[in-house]
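User: Reviewer 2 asked us to show a designed sequence for the structure in our supplementary figure. I'm pasting the structure tokens here. Could you produce the per-position amino acids so we can include them in the response letter?
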């Protein structure tokens, strides 16, 4: 595979802080770069490629050497171009480049932290809640997040999951009349060709008790050019469709991402966000608030903020739970309610998502609730006797 031909040389002293725009934004200087298939073909996947583009830290170099066989690295040229190459703590960089800490396994960590495998009645399907299921249609993603909760599954890429593999899943959904909501996830469903994705969506739509279809994706952030007219027009044919987009940091909201989200929103698709709380990346209330407010501006409604799961090798990304609670405390009431996601812990072992917001009910006793508002002022509500 030919890596992106970038003139930048890491030995130059005046390193450009990011590779924008030379890495892809000008289609004239880089034909094909606005094409999502080009982006996938030219992903940065090896030590040899990445060391030409960035001066790696010792922790990153070691991470590469020792992480063979663990979660694959793949970074689209587009996403790579957001990295501040001078700052080793760049939030984009930390999500994408392996580090030696990934090799540390702590005793509370689990291969399948949310107990998905044990709630999988047929291959590719997780059925945890009464009325909705999760369908994992691929194990590929445009970029592999180092903190991925499904790092046991993703990034294998070969062989791609065959369509036949899902016959049992369709049969299962058809037989369970209580399932009214199917969440298509992965990996990343938007890695599939539009016609391939359409096959799944169409099959689901043909099941009369499936009311809504959702897609969980990070592609609009890591490969925004994937969101094209063909995709938007296809999704629009199968309404009600919802799309949840995984965002981590305000720096991910670029003109390209704005375009992608606008195209989906203009197709009538309600957009939600999902964010994993990550140490040193988005664990400051000001950063999170900025992200949430910027999301509203591109018509993405913050949905979930996740406590980082106990996936193997992710301890360096995890914060205490109080960090997330404090973030929600600093948002709720202080800003637009739409900007406040629900902070959840996906219960280890398979209990599902459990909300852990700050407590606003101080006392709830016979006929009376004592409440605390966002300013810390106390109020009483008297219930009907
Ligand atoms: C997150 C999740 C869902 C969807 O949950 P919502 O709270 O409805 O968004 C469904 N199934 C599984 C297994 C999940 O992890
Ligand atoms: S996009 Fe999602 S599934 Fe893919 S690596 Fe990132 S967190 Fe994991």
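Assistant: Here is a per-position design you can include in the supplement:
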């Amino acid at each position: 595979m030919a890596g992106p031909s970038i003139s930048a040389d890491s030995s130059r002293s005046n390193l450009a802080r990011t590779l924008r725009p030379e890495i892809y934004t000008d289609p004239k200087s880089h034909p094909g770069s606005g094409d999502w298939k080009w982006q996938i073909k030219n992903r940065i996947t090896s030590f040899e490629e990445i060391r030409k583009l960035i001066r790696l830290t010792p922790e990153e170099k070691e991470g590469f050497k020792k992480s063979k066989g663990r979660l694959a690295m793949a970074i689209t040229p587009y996403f790579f171009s957001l990295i501040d190459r001078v700052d080793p703590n760049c939030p984009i960089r930390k999500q994408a480049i392996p580090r030696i800490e990934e090799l540390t396994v702590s005793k509370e960590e689990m291969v399948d932290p949310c107990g998905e495998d044990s709630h999988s009645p047929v291959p590719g399907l997780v059925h945890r809640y009464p009325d909705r299921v999760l369908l994992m249609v691929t194990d590929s993603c445009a970029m592999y997040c180092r903190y991925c909760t499904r790092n046991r599954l993703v990034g294998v890429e070969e062989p791609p999951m065959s369509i036949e593999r899902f016959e049992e899943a369709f049969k299962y959904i058809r037989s369970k009349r209580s399932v009214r909501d199917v969440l298509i996830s992965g990996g990343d469903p938007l890695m599939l060709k539009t016609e391939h994705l359409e096959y799944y969506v169409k099959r689901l739509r043909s099941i009369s008790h499936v009311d809504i279809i959702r897609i969980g994706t990070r592609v609009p952030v890591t490969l925004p050019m994937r969101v094209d007219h063909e995709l938007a027009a296809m999704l629009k044919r199968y309404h009600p469709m919802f799309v949840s987009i995984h965002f981590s940091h305000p720096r991910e909201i670029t003109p390209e991402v704005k375009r992608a989200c606008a195209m989906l929103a203009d197709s009538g698709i309600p957009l939600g966000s999902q964010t994993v709380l990550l140490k040193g990346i988005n664990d400051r209330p000001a950063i999170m608030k900025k992200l949430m407010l910027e999301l509203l501006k591109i018509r993405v409604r913050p949905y979930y903020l996740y406590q980082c799961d106990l996936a193997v090798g992710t301890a360096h990304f995890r914060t205490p739970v109080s960090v997330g609670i404090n973030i929600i405390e600093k948002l709720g009431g202080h800003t637009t309610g739409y900007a406040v996601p629900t902070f959840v812990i996906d219960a280890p072992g398979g209990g599902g998502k459990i909300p852990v917001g700050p407590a606003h009910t101080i006392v709830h006793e016979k006929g009376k609730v004592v409440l605390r508002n966002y300013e810390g002022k106390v109020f009483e509500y008297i219930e009907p006797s």
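For the response letter, you might also mention the following. Residues 126, 128-129, 132, 134, 183, 353 surround pyridoxal-5'-phosphate (ligand 1) (CB under 6 Å). The chain has two domains: 15-100, 117-355.
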